[in-house]
Amino acid sequence: MLSKTESRNPWLFVPSVYFAEGLPYILINSVSVILYKNMGVSNAKIAFWTSWLYLPWVIKMLWGPMVDMYGTRRSWVVYTQLIMACCLGASALSLAGQHFFAVSLVSFAVGAFISATHDIAVDGFYMLALTKEDQAFFVGIRSMFYRFAMIFGTGFLVFRAGKMQEAGDTPAAGWGTMLTISAAFFLALFIYHKFALPYPAEDVSKAKAEPGPLLRSVLTLVLYLAAAGAIIWIFDHLSGVGQKFASAAFLAAALVFACRRYFFGRLKAKMAEEGNSFNEAFISYFTQDGIGYIVAFILFYRLAEAMLLKMTQPFLLDAAEKGGLGIATAEVGIIYGTIGMTALITGGLLGGWLISKYGFRRCLWPMVLALHVPDVFYLYMAYAQSKLDYIMINLSEYQSALSLIPAIGRYLVKFAQGSLQIPFGTIPLLVAAEQFGYGIGLTAFTVYLMMICKGKFKTAHFAISTGIMALGMMAPGMISGLLQQRYGYQRFFLIICILTIPGILVIFRLPINEGIESRQ
Predict the structure, then answer these.
(1) Parallel, antiparallel, or unpaired: how do β-strands 421-425 and 390-394 relate?
(2) How many angstroms from the chain centroid is the CA of residue 435?
(3) Contact 120/67 with Cβ under 8 angstroms?
(4) What are phi and psi of 40, to 5 degrees?
């Protein structure tokens, strides 16, 4: 058994905690779409309700200070993993019931809040448990294992669930098994991290968990959740895309007006009196030059992509008579979850290298086009439908060729001996190309979010930006299913291509600080 120590080799815990950070996010926000599609839920319901699962990542900044103040970051990391195991286990059990959609959605919603809290704790623990030198060294390692978790979720779990269904199991049985495996995995992580994580000297509770402040924090969170629930109820009872669009626009306009007219002024006065750093971070972000264009960029840059992401997997799965491509679940796990996700990661890595070599300003427009232009591939696939094909290649037939690849050839040969098949053809190529472009374009977006983080509140500013970013993914995703069901896949993807325009136009007015850019 490992003894308690203030420091420990980061290789013992950094890969595992960041794998644990990535897996719930991809399960809840992406894999759940395929799960519900297999279970026969309509595209409109899938898109609307799974989009609300983004909410905890939108507002996680609101309870972030509570994680900092009460308890240790180590405890938050360990016990959120235990609770996550329970949430995934509950989701697995719910699939066999008559009301599986509502019950599993609640389990996923609780898991989303736990996952967002786990994110806060892991990032804080990383800064306390590692030296500055180790933090710099492991920044790429932690990102790599986070992405491995994404491939594991959208690739392996989807593939195995599909194979179980092909073997005669029901979707509920297949997905119940995959969620149970995920729950067991988190239980194992809880046990491992309980003993493997170090005990940094600075990781101490900053405040005693007195009933008064703790109760106020919980009540504040409950009020936000109640408000969110009321908005969900209102949107669910509105009929038609037009009413939902109009209501969303009205709410956004009212929020902006209220904040600029009343909220910011009062917070500034209170901040001057009390020196509240949380309010100061919030106000300093929303009063910087060009904030309107900055927020518009964050919301609109991925507007089309947010809607596309929700309908990509249903499009691949839906039968041809419904306008889809009719691909089996297991093959979607390979095409989209493995090949596509690998292309996304590769694009992100290339984008980071290009910006580091040529600078943000020179790379911005090429990366914008790399993000938006490939959306037309889905429009093409929706129209070309019957002309598209692909074949499954058995890697075991190419063992001699694989053995010639330097360094990794012998490992590929062993991998191929399992008769693994990979898809080859137009569909996998176009899916990979779109994801590759998305990875490149997303890099420019992420770098800009870091560029606008200023002064002593860089961490808080980045948290606010990512919260707005999550809102920009959540709101469009909610109506994507309704649009698809009303207009069909062909016109839906045409609308997607048109919706890339607002995100492009706002860039012309986007403030880019050369001084900040040079320091990145």
Answers:
(1) antiparallel
(2) 14
(3) yes
(4) 90, 15
Tell me how far CA of residue 81 lies from CA of 23, 54, 162, 195, in angstroms.
Answer: 11, 19, 27, 14
Q: Tell me the two tokens of residue 85.
A: 């195991």
Tell me which amino acid residue 218 is: V
Residue 437 pLDDT greater than 90, yes or no: yes
The two tokens of residue 317 are 């799965």
Place of tokens 């070599």: 357
Most confident of 42-51, 232-241, 420-429, 458-467: 42-51
Query: What is the C-alpha separation between 11 and 34, in angstroms, rounded?
Result: 33
CA distances from 54 to 25, 45, 50, 110, 113 (A): 9, 15, 8, 12, 9
Residue 275 has pLDDT above 50, yes or no: no
Q: What is the pLDDT of residue 423?
A: 67
Instruction: List helix spans (H) across 360-425.
Output: 360-372, 376-384, 399-402, 409-416
Sign of the CA dihedral with 64 first, then 67, 69, and 73 last: negative
Question: How many CA atoms lie less than 13 Å away from 334 in the CB half-sphere?
Answer: 20
| Reported pTM | 0.78
Please report which helix (H) or strand (E) contains residue 137, including its range: helix 132-151
Give per-residue pLDDT as tens, 146-177: 888 999 999 999 999 999 999 999 999 999 99
Instruction: Give the separation between CA 125 and CA 320, rounded to whole angstroms.
Output: 49
Per DSSP, the chain holds a count of helices (H) and strands (E) of 26, 2
Position 358, amino acid: Y
For residue 64, what are its two tokens?
């972030």
The answer to whether residue 518 scores a pLDDT higher than 50 is no
Alpha helices in 452-499 (DSSP H): 458-498
Which residues face 424 on adjacent strands? 391
